[in-house]
């Protein structure tokens, strides 16, 4: 299971329920709408898009831009072009900053635009820290994938088919999760509709691939005698994902997407809790529970509980959302930061689960 992506899905759930009423206050501000309109007209040649634009208003806007240089002139600098900024979205960004600065001067609350805080761009990056922390999440999963892959190749050379089956399921999680954090990085670099879709598609793929991995472990589908069951289970997983994506492409719904992913994620949580509890009970060496909890040869089996609970505690960042500090660091970015360290331990736990547990049938 990928704790980080599930965390993101749960964060969406909280955002929908806590901030829905105020998520787009900035969008409806007359001063924001007028600002975007003027920028579009004077820098994007957008006058033809406004049928009620008077010639005198057009001349006034052009003269004001020539005199004050309120908006960035075309063509855009190379760093903005490279990341994917275009004229109209650049107008939208500039106006979020102009209106935010005006509201700060007037001691008014900072508001969101299009459901996002008005971040300051850095080298063209729309959300600097969310981008950096998405990259920070990528590397633990990449390293974890490499670790699992090495063990997979070793077992393959030894002809240990059953362990290969389980390692392969864990490799699927690692590979898909690396893709998910890659698209999360691209999305936070510059928010576009296509990038948002890819971010959601791969987030969903990671959640459901996690269900395949934990299901393969808990229900012992890696065993040779369960080959047919494992393939059938994989087919169900694939069909579920295809159905999910088809539903979104047919009728995009944030609420549906959130509910579907949270449902699958919660099932994973319970399965990993069950696996951790079962492994712990089978590996106990002491009559006293406290002694087992202190024993590193035993307590490592509870790693999933610790990682899951850590992620849930990190949800507090999303629950208590706040305007970005220094216009750069918000609760969502801190949330991404909080999901990095659990990923550092997840894959090593899965490998140890195989190497120290399954191979000697200690708690198979």
UniProtKB/TrEMBL annotation:
It holds the Pfam family Per1. The chain crosses the membrane at residues 128-145, 166-188, 200-219, 231-250, 256-277, 298-320, 332-351. The keyword Translocase does not apply. Residues 1-23 form the signal peptide. Its main location: membrane. InterPro entries: Per1-like. Keywords: Endoplasmic reticulum, GPI-anchor biosynthesis, Membrane, Signal, Transmembrane, Transmembrane helix. GO terms for cellular component: endoplasmic reticulum membrane. It is a multi-pass membrane protein. One of its GO terms (biological process) is GPI anchor biosynthetic process. It is found in: Endomembrane system; Endoplasmic reticulum membrane. Coiled coil: none annotated. One of its GO terms (molecular function) is hydrolase activity, acting on ester bonds. Involved in the lipid remodeling steps of GPI-anchor maturation. Belongs to the PGAP3 family. This is Post-GPI attachment to proteins factor 3. It comes from Ambrosiozyma monospora (Yeast).
């Amino acid at each position: 299971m990928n704790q980080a992506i599930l965390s993101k899905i749960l964060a969406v759930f909280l955002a929908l329920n806590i901030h829905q009423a105020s998520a787009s206050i900035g969008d409806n501000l007359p001063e924001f709408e007028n600002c975007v309109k003027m920028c579009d007209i004077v820098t994007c040649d957008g006058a033809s898009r406004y049928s009620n634009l008077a010639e005198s208003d057009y001349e006034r806007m052009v003269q004001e831009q020539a005199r004050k240089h309120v908006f960035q002139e075309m063509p855009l600098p190379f760093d903005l072009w490279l990341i994917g900024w275009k004229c109209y979205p650049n107008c939208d960004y500039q106006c979020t900053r102009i209106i935010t600065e005006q509201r700060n001067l007037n001691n008014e609350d900072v508001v969101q635009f299009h459901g996002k805080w008005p971040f300051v761009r850095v080298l063209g990056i729309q959300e600097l820290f969310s981008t950096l922390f998405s990259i920070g999440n990528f590397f633990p999963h990449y390293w974890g994938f490499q670790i699992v892959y090495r063990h997979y190749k070793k077992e393959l050379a030894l002809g240990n088919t059953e362990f290969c089956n389980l390692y392969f399921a864990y490799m699927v999680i690692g590979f898909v999760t690396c893709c998910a954090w890659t698209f999360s990085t691209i999305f936070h670099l510059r928010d576009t509709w296509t990038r948002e879709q890819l971010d959601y598609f791969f987030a969903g793929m990671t959640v459901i691939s996690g269900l395949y991995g934990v299901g393969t472990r808990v229900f012992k589908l890696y065993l040779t005698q369960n080959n047919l069951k494992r393939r059938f289970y994989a087919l169900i997983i694939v069909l579920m994902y295809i159905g999910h994506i088809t539903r979104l492409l047919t009728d995009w719904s944030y609420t549906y997407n959130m509910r579907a992913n949270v449902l699958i994620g919660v099932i994973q949580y319970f399965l990993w809790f069950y696996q951790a509890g079962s492994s712990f009970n089978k590996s106990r060496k002491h009559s006293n529970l406290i002694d087992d909890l202190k024993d590193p040869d035993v307590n490592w089996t509870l790693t999933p509980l610790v990682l899951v609970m850590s992620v849930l505690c990190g949800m507090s960042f999303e629950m208590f959302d706040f305007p970005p500090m220094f216009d750069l660091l918000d609760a969502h970015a801190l949330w991404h930061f909080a999901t990095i360290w659990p990923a550092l331990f997840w894959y090593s736990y899965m490998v140890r689960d195989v190497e120290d547990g399954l191979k000697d049938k200690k708690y198979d």
